Automatic annotation (TrEMBL):
Superkingdom as given in the UniProt entry: Eukaryota
Record-linked InterPro entries: ACR1-12 (IPR040217), ACR2/9/10_N (IPR056816), ACT-like_dom_sf (IPR045865), ACT_ACR9/10_C (IPR056805), ACT_dom (IPR002912)
Protein name, entry field: ACT domain-containing protein ACR
Residues in ACT domain copies: 118-201
Organism: Hibiscus sabdariffa (roselle)
Alphabetic keyword roster: Repeat
Keyword Repeat: yes
Recorded coiled-coil stretches: none
Length: 438
């Protein structure tokens, strides 16, 4: 038995634009489904204001209250979002035992992956160009997997974008031609040439980044949460207050589940970070409530259990889980500014999901922040770095020095710290900064 396909994903648009859109997902459950749904909402530039979800391990029911991120400059295509969310849901007409036996890999029920395509753009350079191209690709529902950006001495930029298509239509000539025409039309006279083709061996060669200096690797990948919290003493007092999180573990309230009560500062992608951690730690959330933000804070109640169906009673397991959750809630990004010879380099790192997927829209958000600050990007690249216990996606930006914004000065770096947009607030010590939603 099943439910009509049109009822699997329901989207209720608000009558008042100031109210959230309500999205309901009602389908068979699968490992990591909640994380995958939240990831897609992030890709579409949406923020979760509230959420309720429940599952018995076979069937799940999820309700999201959504608003567009303020940084979004494009209209949400709700019909396309509905199709994307529906494509992630296991078929309602397939028997559960068949579903459980056929799901492999990351549990998505499919062994196929979207093909990677190479977009080659040659343009005349100008401020904000890289973000403008990134915004167009996001608007067209492309995900950026790798990037190589180079500026030539004659004022031209060669951009190599390795992309996948959320609509999975790039194999058609029409989708490729429409994409190129749209880019050329928006970029206008700045666009010199535009090519789009299936990626070749060059994609694999760009997966690994050139080795980072040991000191940089130490700060990006091996700093413990305690040391990062200690460094926050250099921050302003109101920011220190925000960067706190408490997690209470209760095994008495429910006979079958462990209750996690979480209180933490709100930030972009918070619900995704928590569900990503649950997916990586392989614990199941039977019921959860993600409350609205109150004075910049969120409260979450999660009834969880281990994959074997048992409660989490081992203190060591509890401590490991709580430590990882705090780390992901307080530090979803690792961001530092370093000197690279006479130049200034911005490095952003975030953990990769166990399925191999990186965090959505990081490149979009960072290039937007730099554009708003009027900082030009001389070169940029995305790659992967493996540490002792996890894999990271690393974004490297070589920034162009200017008289208006001399990056070598403490004053300019403090401006990076204090820069605030409607969507995010920026915190930093002398060595770096992090983006956290205000």
């Amino acid at each position: 038995m099943g439910i009509p396909s049109e009822d699997v994903v329901l989207i209720q648009l608000p009558k008042d634009p100031s109210e959230p859109t309500v999205v309901t997902v009602n389908c068979p459950d699968k490992p990591g489904l909640g994380c995958d749904l939240c990831r897609t909402l992030l890709e579409f530039g949406l923020s979760i204001t509230r959420a309720d979800f429940s599952t018995d391990g076979r069937w799940c029911y999820v309700v999201f209250w959504l608003v567009p991120n303020v940084s979004n400059s494009f209209k949400i295509d709700w019909e396309s979002l509905k199709n994307r969310l529906f494509s992630m849901c296991p078929s309602c007409l397939v028997p559960f035992f068949y579903l459980n036996n056929q799901q492999g890999g990351d549990g998505n029920g499919s062994s196929t992956h979207s093909s990677v395509y190479l977009l080659k753009l040659c343009c005349l350079d100008r401020k904000g160009l890289l973000h403008d191209v990134t915004r167009i690709l996001s608007d067209l529902e492309f995900s950026i997997q790798r990037v190589k950006v180079m500026t030539t001495p004659d004022g031209r930029v060669m951009d190599l974008f390795f992309i996948t298509d959320g609509m999975e239509l790039l194999h058609t000539k029409k989708r490729r031609d429409d994409t190129k025409e749209h880019l050329i039309a928006v970029l206008g006279n700045y666009c010199i040439s535009c090519e789009l083709q299936l990626a070749g061996p060059e994609y694999d060669s760009l997966k690994a980044l050139p080795s980072l200096p040991p000191a940089v690797s130490e700060e990006l990948f091996t700093c413990e949460l305690a040391s990062k919290e200690a460094s926050s003493r250099e921050l302003k007092s109101d920011l220190v207050t925000l960067k706190k999180a408490t997690i209470t573990v209760d095994n008495l309230l429910s006979p079958a589940h462990t209750l996690l009560q979480i209180h933490c500062a709100d930030q972009k992608g918070l619900f995704y970070d928590i569900l990503r951690t649950s997916k990586d730690f392989d614990f199941q959330i039977a019921h959860g409530r993600f409350s609205s933000s109150v004075k910049g804070y969120r409260n979450l109640d999660l009834f969880i259990r281990q994959a074997n169906g048992n409660k989490i009673v081992d203190p060591k397991h509890q401590n490991a889980l709580c430590s990882r959750l705090k780390e992901e809630m307080l530090h979803p990004f690792r961001v530092i500014i370093v000197n690279r010879g006479p130049d200034t380099e911005l490095l952003v790192a975030n953990p990769v999901e166990s399925s191999g997927k990186g965090r959505p829209r990081v490149f979009y958000d960072v290039t937007l922040a730099l554009k708003m600050l009027g900082i030009c990007i001389f070169s940029a690249e995305i790659g992967r770095h493996s540490s002792s216990d996890r894999q990271w996606e690393v974004y490297r930006f070589l920034l162009d020095e200017s008289h208006e914004f001399p990056l070598a000065s403490d004053r300019a770096r403090n401006q990076l710290v204090d820069k605030r947009s409607k969507d995010s607030k920026t915190y930093a010590s002398k060595s770096g900064f992090e983006f956290v939603k205000a």
